[in-house]
Design a protein that fits this description.
This protein is mainly α. Helix content is 59%, strand content 0%. The chain folds into three domains: 24-46 and 55-181, Four Helix Bundle (Hemerythrin (Met), subunit A); 183-239, Winged helix-like DNA-binding domain superfamily/Winged helix DNA-binding domain (Arc Repressor Mutant, subunit A), CATH 1.10.10; 273-328, Winged helix-like DNA-binding domain superfamily/Winged helix DNA-binding domain (Arc Repressor Mutant, subunit A). It is built from 15 helices and no strands. The longest helix has 23 residues, at 75-97. The N and C termini lie far apart (102 Å).
Length: 333
């Protein structure tokens, strides 16, 4: 059978990567997911899906209808397009079954199957649009799942291809988010609980008209408040924040400029307090000599001239003061 030329994807010419090129997370995920290199076209991002609507198609008719509705087609065109896609998929799988793997004809029919079922990938990718990841990257990862589903699908089992492919596509996207997107990997139980916390937060916000408190979420899910707080922290681990980046909007300096540092004078606080306590126990003249010597940095000759006594007498007074301070210092004793 002859496959329409429009169904055959155009393979873009591959370019050599420059030296020192660092592959993106999507490129690394694609390289680790495919056993052999496959070039498949990926259409643009999904256009304005219905907000908050999540549909899990169990039949090929449901999948095609949802993908067509997400693409913004009228109802009549949705039905026509869905029927054409299902018919083309069945015909291509029947032809693919009789071809030898590795031949040019096999690759051509396989690429046509990928092109025909890309709306299914875009629908699955739209469920993850709240993850703040480029939709093109998510669609590309989902296409890898579509390729794996095409390679494993057996049309003789009587299962519609969209029903078979959807778990594989969604699983590939979830694996990408689990292994490549999160900066900090959290336990699986905590990640699954975070999804429930998000759903409970949306329900309580709708019911009360405000953001729910931590005790309200914990009571709704019948878990402890500490678990709710841990889930919220786990949900923030997708992206790391630069310590040097300035805060957007408020004009505040970066986080690094606002972090505390170790004060080098902190260790001397106890010593200064102890010396102040011991100095008041000395006679007034000895206190003045110590202040002139160690605070005003005067020499013994300058102190003797200041007080009108000999330098030897100043030296003896300093020695006697140190002896009194050491005897009164209970820490040294």
């Amino acid at each position: 059978m002859t496959v329409p030329a429009s169904a055959t994807p155009q393979v873009p010419p591959q370019q050599d990567e420059p030296p020192g090129h660092v592959a993106s997370p999507v490129a690394r995920h694609v390289a680790s997911s495919l056993a052999r290199p496959v070039v498949s076209p990926v259409a643009g991002p999904l256009a304005s899906p219905v907000a908050g609507q999540v549909v899990s198609p169990s039949t090929s008719q449901d999948a095609d209808r949802v993908a067509s509705r997400a693409a913004g087609l009228p109802a009549r065109q949705q039905s026509t397009r869905g029927a054409d896609t299902r018919a083309l998929t069945q015909v291509l799988f029947a032809e693919l079954k009789g071809l030898e793997p590795g031949t040019s004809e096999h690759r051509r029919v396989r690429s046509a199957l990928i092109e025909a079922n890309l709306p299914l990938v875009r629908y699955a990718a739209a469920r993850f649009r709240s993850r703040n990841e480029p939709m093109e990257d998510v669609v590309q990862v989902g296409t890898i799942g579509l390729i794996n589903a095409i390679d494993r699908f057996d049309p003789d089992r009587g299962v519609q291809f969209p029903t078979f492919a959807m778990p594989t596509v969604v699983g590939e996207i979830k694996r990408y988010f689990r292994d490549n997107v999160r900066t900090v990997h959290v336990p699986r139980r905590l990640h699954e609980l975070w999804v429930q916390v998000n759903a409970a937060t949306e329900d309580l916000t709708t019911a009360h008209g405000r953001t729910p408190t931590t005790p309200e979420i914990a009571e709704r899910l019948r878990i402890s408040e500490d678990e709710v707080l841990s889930c919220i922290e786990a949900g923030r681990s997708y992206h790391a924040t630069s310590l040097e980046a300035a805060q957007e909007g408020d004009g505040l300096p970066g986080l690094l400029d606002r972090l505390g540092y170790e004060d080098p004078e902190l260790a001397g606080v106890e010593h200064r307090d102890l010396v102040r306590h011991l100095l008041v126990q000395l006679p007034e003249r000895e206190q003045r000599i110590l202040l002139l010597r160690y605070y005003n940095n005067l020499t013994q000759s300058q102190i003797s001239a200041e007080l009108g006594v000999s330098q030897m007498h100043v030296s003896r007074l300093l020695a006697r003061s140190f002896a009194r301070l050491r005897s009164a210092n209970r820490i040294e004793a």
